[in-house]
Amino acid sequence: MKQRLIDPHGVTFRYRNLRSSFKQFRFLKPNSSGNTSMISRKLLSSLLLLVITADVSAQENSRLDRNNLLQYRTSTGDVKPVTTPTEWQHRRAAILAGVQEVMGKYPGTKERLDSSIEVVEEADAGTYLRRLINYQSETNDKTPAYLCVPKDVLAGKRKTQAVLCLHPTDNTVGHKVVVGLGGRAGRQYASELAERGYVTISPAYPHLANYWPNLGGLDYVSGTMKAIQDNSRALDLLETLDYVDSSKGFGAIGHSLGGHNAIYTAVFDQRISVIVSSCGFDSYLDYYGAAERVWLFGQGWCQIRYMPRLSNYRGRLDQIPFDFHELLGALAPRPLFVNAPLHDSNFVAASVDRCAAAARPVYKLLGDEEHLVVRHPDSDHNFPDDTRAEAYQLIDSVLRP
Question: What is the mean pLDDT of residues 78-99?
Fold first, then answer.
């Protein structure tokens, strides 16, 4: 006979007839009052608690296979195959829940803030104007950003689409690098897209260069989630601009830090209809060879500006409740372009391929397998000219079909 216990958190486990499991304790003799001794009862209770705790703990620590996204866990704890788009939504919801365990809760965009902007400076950049602005990202916080607008759009000759341009790690110039002010080749995608006729917005990243929000005071447990929220608020702002055409959604593009920032943001904000990630990730299992030193608090992914809670998984990286396999799957079926150079010293190209291979069946299930594109240029941690050009063409195909 099988029996079942359900703990207060919904964890279920089965065990065979409890009495038969403890036959070894039949040698215990009753005392003069006819009862098993207190010591014996305590021993039995302790052993039973140990069995229950071990079983429940094992199930709580289990996660679904990151390499098989076409499975999901039911409300009763059973694992079933994903065979329909509706069933995929169960797995996707679990992925988002796992992400928020580490990053903190996604605030969302339910509260519309003041859409006015403060223009700090303006510069003529040839075919477009480049404005350094501050916009309201929280009730008590403003985020600096570069807003690039083609001159003919400002003149009212046409409306145009917009792209969120997220900068790589740079503690000196920060978001200046994506508008061509950082002196680093391959990072000027905001200015190039503006020259291509798009409106671009490039927020600063928390705790880099000129932007130091009080994360704790704003109730964030990670700089990553604050960045996601800032990016979503930037899209809110773009929607208020009468010269922006958002009917096809928005693009998001980034290199390195900006590469994973684009993925994280698009997972939560589905207004982003096309994503470009350059040198932005590999599996957490493969990051710098899983060296313990990069998983210490304050190092690598575990810095305050990223996700300090990840340091809790040092030595058990396989238990991190999400990975890029799942994140790429959560983007499906939206077009995703990944630049993963063969000689990137930060992220391993073969690991990127494993993440993409796990996500590809989800794209196929949703009818758009070809929407996941991975390129491996023969370069280091960079975004080569021809690879950027191909990425821009993908953005054009979605926003300007």
Answer: 98
